[in-house]
Amino acid sequence: MPNPSVHTVVSAARCFTAEEVAELGRAAADGEDRLDPALDGKLLGTIQQLIIEANTQCFHFDLRYAVEVGEPARLVLDEGASSRDAGLGMDSQHSTRKLTGLVGLGTSTARLVLPAADKVVEVFPGSCHLWPSYVDVVFPDGIHGLSFHAFGPAFR
Asked: Out of 28, 54, 69, 138, which residue is the most buried by the measure of CB atoms under 10 Å away?
């Protein structure tokens, strides 16, 4: 039976205000490890809630934990780059990545494209997006954001 989640992106629009997006973007650009504690808590809480809800309602993967050390990580990609180009997906070195996520930090709307399904998702500043790590997505406009993952046992 085909898995309908194969070509799905779960999105939550406007998770962060313009001020929060600016602060997240500044901290990421400066390479800061620490954010204001309230914003740091909101960032991690929002990511975890999106993962829980998306996995419960859509993906149904065996997840064990989310957001490893060093995540969320700054992500700046040029026009036409893909998640595979950026090392975001699942590969032999990252076989426990089940879901890949993105928080949009750009100042304008970008696009996330799933070429295999001919789907386009708009990435607004402050929005969050989640897709299966085995799916390669393309960013035709480039992207500025924070990336993260959810993990579980390797697919069998």
From this structure: 54
Provide the 10 A C-beta neighbour count for residue 112. 24
Q: Is 136 contained in some domain? A: yes
Residues (pLDDT < 50) of the chain are none
**Selection from 109, 129, 147 nearest residue 10 by Cα:** 129
58 in a domain, yes or no? yes
* Omega before 4 within 30 of 0, i.e. cis: no
**Which CATH number is 92's domain given?**
2.60.120
pLDDT value of residue 68: 85
Q: Using alpha carbons, select from 58, 146, 41 the residue that is nearest to residue 98.
A: 58
Provide the number of structural domains found in the chain. 1
